Structures
1.
Amino acid sequence: MARFEEIAAEFGPAIARIVASYERNEATRQDLTQEVLVAIYKSLPALRDPSRLRPFLFRIVHNRCLDHVIRDANKPKMDLLNDALPGREDDPHQSFMGRERSDRLLEAVRALEIPYRQVVTLLLEDMSYAEIADALGISISNVGVRVNRAKAQLKLLLNHHERFPR
Amino acid sequence: MNDFPVELKNDWTLQNVEFQALTRRLRRGDSWWQLLLFVSAVVALFGVAAGVWFASVAIREHDLFYGLAAVTMLTAVPPAALAEFRARRSALQWHDRTPEGMVGHALQRVEATARLLRIAFVNALVLLVLAAVVWVFVLLGFIAQNPSLVFITLLWIAFGLATLGWVRWRTGANFRERERCHRLLREFSAATSAAL
C-alpha cells in the first residue's frame, strides 16, 4: 500500500487532468478519479516491469475513463456547465490569462475524438511516443499519425495557429 | 520527451486537483465494492438455500405450493447469480487491454447484460405465472387457502412487475451502450487505419 500511496502522490495530478478530459461535472469527476485509483490499486500487483510504470498507469486511467464514457451513454445530460479543474493557487505567477488558456485547452481536448484525445493527453503529460504506444497498445508510427491529426484538430479548436510551430 | 508545443504543456499543467481528499476516500470506496460483491454472493446463496428448503418441505409434506416455490427459486436464482458474478468479475482487468480492446470488452459486457435481462424477463414472467397458477390451484382445491398465501402471491406479483419495469428501462440503456461501443470502435478503427 505504501507503494500505491507514493504513486498516487506522484501521478495524482496527472491522473486527475486526464480524468477531466473525459468528464466535465466536478462531482462525477471526483468519483471517476476515485474509481481510477481503485483500478490502479487492484492492478498494481500485475506490474512486472517497474520501468513500464507510466504506460501501465496511464493505460489503466484511459481504460477506466473509456468505460465511464460507454456507461455514461445511459445517463441524461444535465451537466452542461463546465466545471474546470481549479488552478494552482500556490503559483504566484499564474495570471487570469493563463487560467483562461488552460480552460480553453481542456475544452479543446474534450472536443477531440477519443483516439486523438488519448494521445494528446499523454503528450501533454510529457510521455514519449514509445511510452504512448505502450500505453495505448498501438505502433509508434500510429502514435505519430494520431498526433499529427490531433494537432490539426486542436489548431482549429483553439484558433491559435501561432502556438503550433511547423 | 516529445515535440508537442511546450506552451500547451504548460497550460495543461496549470490545472490542479484536491487530490488528498480523493486518496482518503479510496479505502472506503474499495471496502464498499467488496461489500457489494459479498452481499450479492450472500443473496445468491440465500436464494438457493431457500429453494432447497422449499423443495424439502414440499417433498416431506406433499405440498404443491412449496414445490412451485422451490422450482421458481432454483430456476431463477442460479442463472441470475452466475450472470451477475461474471459481469462483476470481468470488470477487474483494467491493465490488460488496449483501449480498443476495452471497447470490445465493453461490447461483450453489453451482450452479457442482454442475456441477464432476458433471464430477468423470464424470471419475472415465471413469478407472475406462478402467482396465477397458485390461485388456480387454490380455486380447484389442490392448495389450501390461508392468509399468508395472499401476502406471498402479492409479493411475487409486485416483484415480477417491478422486474419487468426494470428490464424495460435497462434494455433501453443497454441499447445506448451498444450504440456507443460501435461508435467508439469506428473511431478507433479510423484512427488506426489512418496509419496504414
Note: Residues 21 and 110 of chain A are 5 Å apart (CA to CA).
2.
Amino acid sequence: MAICCTTRPRALQWIRSPIRINSGTYVGDSRSDIGTSLAGTHAGQQHLIATLRTVFMGTLFASLAAGCGSNVVLDPPTIPEPLMTTIPMSVGVRMPENFESFIHEEEVLGREQWKIDLGRSNAVFFAQLFGYMFESVTVVSAADDPSIMSFDALIEPSIDEFEFSVPNQTKTDAFAVWIRYRIKVYDRDGKLVVNWPVSAYGKSLTTAMGGSDALQRAAILAMRDAAALVIIKFDEPALISSISGTSESTAAPVEDGGEATAQATTLAGDDDE
Amino acid sequence: MNKLWSSTATCRLILAATVVGLGAGCVTSRVEDAREGITGIESDESVVIMAKSYHLGNETEAKYIACIENALARGSKGLRVIPHKQFVDSLFPWFEPRTAPTETKGLPKLMERPGVAARIREQGVRYIIWLDGDTEKVAGGGSLSCAAGPGGGGCFGFAWWQNDSDYNASVWDLEGLESAGTVTADVSGTSFLPALIVPIPLIARTQAAACKGLANQLRSFIISDELT
C-alpha cells in the first residue's frame, strides 16, 4: 500500500493517436482486383472521398459541440389524482402565453450550453391539477373576458423564475430545478384575493441514461412539488369560503401588478423556500 | 509437447486464480440494529421502502432503493414489498419530498386526512422503511495512462480509490403509528486498478454489500427472528 500513499493522484488519461484519412489514390491502388474498372472513375472516387471526409469531419465537430451542452425537451407530465376532497367551486383558469411555450437557456460556467424546453408542460400540468382540485374548471384564453362568465373564482398561474443547476456547478451528481410560480386568484367581483409565490424544487441524481434524463426528471419533480404546495395552500376551508364568498371575507382587495402580496391575514402569501 | 502444454495450462490457471481471487477489492462492513418495539408481520401485510426527502439533504440513490426492494422480496422468507412509486402515487400529495412526515409524531395527523388510512390499509402496508445515506468516494490515488494507435494500444500504471457506503433505515410501524427501530449498514472498501497493457479492475462493491447486509438485517428485524 506504500505505493498508494506516495504516488501523486492523477486522473486517468487516454492518449489518442491522430486520426488519418486515407487518400483517394491509396484506396484505388490497393484494390488491384478492380483497379481497371475504377481507373476511369478516378475523379469520381476523389470526389466521393472528399464528400465522405467532409461528412466525417462534420459529424466529429457536431459530436464535440453536442458534448458541450444539452437540449432537453420536456413532455407534458401527468400527476396522480390527489387524495383530497374536491373543492365545491367552479373556477376559470387563465394561462399566460409562456405556459404554451417556455424555453429556458443557460450557459453554465461559461462552457456548457443548456437549453430546456418545457413546451406546453405548464399549461397541461395546471389544467390537470385544477381539474382534480375543483368541481368545475374552464380554461379561458387571454382574449376572453372572464367577467361575463359565471365562475366562483378566476385563477391565474404564472412563472416568476426558472433556474437549474448541473453537477459541474454543485460538485455533486445531482441536477436540480427551481421553479417559482405565482398563483393569483380573483373572486367573482374581479378582486385579487390571493397572490401566492410558490417556490418548487426538484432534484435528481445523474443516471446511466445521462444528464438530460436527470434534468428532465428534476423538472418533473419540481412541478410535482408545486402541485403539492398548491393543494396544501388550498386545503383551508376558511380560505375557500372567503374566495367563493360564502362567508364573511377577511381579505382586503389587493391591487394587481404591485409588489405587495395579499393583505389579509388568512390569505397572505408566504414564501415556501 | 506435453511439458509445453502443461506449463501453458499452469500459467493460465495461475492467471485465472489471480483474477478470481483478486476479482473483488477488500470490503469491511458493519450492520447493526436498534430495536424500539416488538415487530412482526402477517402474510397479508407489506412493507414499503422510501428515501428520506432530498429537501433534507438526503441523496440515497434510486438504484439502492430498488436493490433493497428486490433483496427484501427475494427468498423463502421474502417480504411483500410495495414499489415506492406506486405507494407515493397512490397517496399523492402526502408522501412527496416536501409533504411526507419526517417524524412518527406526524403520522396521526396524516392518517386523519380523508382517504389516507383507507388507501394504506388497501395496500396492506404495515411498515414504512425510510432510507437515508449514500455511497461516496472518500479517497483515491495512483496514476494510470492508456495509449492507442494503429498498431494497438495498452495501459500502464496503478490507480486506487476508497468508497464508503453508509445507510440508515428507520422502520415505522403503521399499526401503532410509532417507530419500531433503526438498522444501519456501514461498508467501506478499496478498489484497485493495476494495468500492464491490460487493466485489471479489482472493484470493492461497497454499495452491493451494504444492500445485501441491510436487507438481510431488515428482514430479520421485521420478522423478529432475533427474538425467537
Note: Helices of chain B lie at 2-21, 62-73, 84-90, 107-112, 116-122, 206-223.
